[in-house]
Amino acid sequence: MKAWNSGKSVGQKTPFTARQVEMLKDILTNKGAVKELALFSFGIDSMLRSSDILNLRVEDVVDHKGKVKTNINLKQKKTKQSHVVIISESTAKSLDNMIRKEGKFESDWLFTAERFGNQKKKPMSHVKYTLLVKKWCGLIHLDPKDYSTHSIRRTRAAMVYKATGNNIRLVQQLLGHKSITSTTAYLNLDQQQALDVYREFLD
Description:
Helix content is 50%, strand content 5%. It is mainly α. It has a single domain, classed as hpI Integrase, Chain A. A two-stranded antiparallel ribbon has the order 1-2. The protein is globular and about 50 Å long. The chain starts with 17 loop residues before the first helix and ends with a helix.
């Protein structure tokens, strides 16, 4: 009997480097890949799980005037906890460009699957998101087997971890792995401090 992981790449997926992130943003921009640029940029900045990203609607990321926010308060699907994510102005602009180009309404899914004919718009699937990550790897000559949607989530976290002297607890705070109450009590660090540190690593 074959092992469950026979022929499969398992283990922690590799995060992208800062240089690779910039290369991919430049390539996607030059290709006019508006949705892909928005998804890649938002995934890197937000550090959200793919399930949370693909569950977003336009109304989750825009204010009452329809402007994309840079501070977004969301409830994580897995933990059911409220969590604040921060995105850069350039990422907010990428999201705004996508929303406008695709003519989305506030109730629409933020990242949608390709639609054929009169099919109803559906959220992008995890499989499609994974395939896009593999495609992006190919654009900069990386081995797709080493990367997944989890690589997107880990990228900014790895940068913050290294730049803050391996402060794993700060990274856990930013990723929303634990409740704000239990984490800040242990660290004597409030949420605003963590968010202020994170802003330093945005574009």
